[in-house]
Amino acid sequence: MRDWYELKFSLQFRSLVGTEFQDFFASIMELGYPADFERVKPYGKNGDRKCDGYHRSHRRVYQVYAPEKMQVVETNAKIDEDFTGALGHWSKEMATWVFVHNQWRGIPADVLKKLLGIHGMKGVSVLSWSEPELRGEFFLLSSHDQARLLGPAMSLLVGAVGIEPSALLQTRNLFIPRFDESDRNARNDKLRYKKGTKEVPLDSSSQ
Questions:
Q1: How far apart are CA 20 and CA 13, in angstroms?
Q2: pTM score, two decimals?
Q3: Contact 150, 9 (CB under 8 A)
C-alpha cells in the first residue's frame, strides 16, 4: 500500500496550485494534528493576517505559496511582505515561520538566499517546506485518513487478481500500448492490400 500512496501523493502534490494546493496542505495538517493545527481562512479587510495555518504546540505560522511557475522577483517580494506581516500580527505567538511551496524540482538560488537572510530576524526561525516535508506528514497519518485524502488504495485489484501494488507500479506501462517507430516503418513498407488478384503496396497509385 505504501508504494501506491507514494505515487498518489506525488501526483497530487505536483498537480495542485494556488488555493487547491493550500487546501491540500491544510487538510493533511488538520488530520495529523487535530486540536493543535488551525487552518486560517481570510475574513474581511484584514484577510488572514499573513497566516495560512497555525501550529500551537510548535508556535509555527505557515505561509503557503503555490504558483504554476516561481518567479524570483515576485516570490522574494511575497516573502518580504508575508514575513514582515506575520511579525506584525503574530510576534507573541510565533517562534517559527514556515514557507510552504509546491516547487518539487527545487527553488531558485536567490529565493533560498532570501529565506536564509530573514532566518533569525526578531528571534524567529525560518523553514522551507516542500514535497519531502509534506510527504513525511502525510505518512504519519492513519491509513484511514490517507484514504480520506487520496482515495482507497488498489485493494480491490489486489484481491481480485493477486497483484501487489509495488508490482503494479513497476509495470504500470503494461496498460499503455507501446508502439516502436521502427515497427511503424516496417509495417508501412510491408503492408499490402489486394486489388483483384494483385497485391499492391499502400504507397502505390491505382492503375
A1: 10
A2: 0.74
A3: yes
Q: 156 is written with which cell numbers?
A: 480491490
Residue pLDDT, tens place only, 95-147 = 999 999 999 999 999 999 999 999 999 999 999 999 999 999 999 999 999 99
Contact 4, 95 (CB under 8 A): no
CB 174 within 8 A of CB 181: no
What domains appear along the chain, each with residue ranges and CATH number? 2-155 (3.40.91)
Is there a contact between 133 and 28 (Cβ–Cβ < 8 Å)?
Answer: no
DSSP state of 8: H
Distance CA 120, CA 81 (A): 16
Three cell numbers, residue 155: 485493494
- 195, β-bridge pairs: 198
Query: Phi/psi at 88 (nearest 5 deg)?
Result: -70, -35
CA distance 164 to 157: 9
Of 12, 44, 17, the C-alpha closest to 28 is: 12
CA–CA separation, 141 and 50 (whole Å): 27
